[in-house]
Amino acid sequence: xxxxxxxxxxxxxxxxxxxxxxxxxxxxxxxxxxxxxxxxxxxxxxxxxxxxxxxxxxxxxxxxxxxxxxxxxxxxxxxxxxxxxxxxxxxxxxxxxxxxxxxxxxxxxxxxxxxxxxxxxxxxxxxxxxxxxxxxxxxxxxxxxxxxxxxxxxxxxxxxxxxxxxxxxxxxxxxxxxxxxxxxxxxxxxxxxxxxxxxxxxxxxxxxxxxxxxxxxxxxxxxxxxxxxxxxx
Length: 233
Hints:
By secondary structure, the chain is mainly beta. It has one helix at residues 15-22, and strands spanning 32-39, 47-51, 54-60, 69-72, 74-75, 78-82, 88-92, 95-96, 101-107, 116-122, 131-138, 146-152, 164-167, 171-172, 176-179, 181-189, 197-204, 209-215, 225-230.
């Protein structure tokens, strides 16, 4: 299955803005890193994302994600602002490596001053023939540590062994290789069989790379929910 990469820069207002993004790391057009964005904060407003002062994603709602953007490698300044304002909620300057992929998430809450950025390293190495790769990111501020199960659809968690145990908030699991097919991802408070997130049945074809993100919910933070990201878009 061909690998499709979201190399195209979206939401550019001019060719000059596109050129500025592509060459933030210098004059070498091959010195590119790739980054996408997720609004995972249950009480943050919609977000505008700026890289080195240029708006590259507008109006990113809770649970929403962007495609990957190609940017210059090295240190980049990322701002996340309340949409259509100059109110900066997150200001960070990660160093991005050439030819590497990243997911930057807004996590935590505005109401208790815990809103922050979380950067994960993404693995775009092709799965083995007939397989997929799947991981989880714990981005729910209202959940404690989680056990994560990837099971055949409908199996449940009773009598099963977690694929990842005691996963802390703001932590990503490894990518798990598995045969293409239908799976269900369950998340429970660590050491219990109480399912707080159930993705329902997910069908994957060979060659896919996916990420499940555990989210809280507005208000008191329950019920929890999840989103599924396509890591090749």
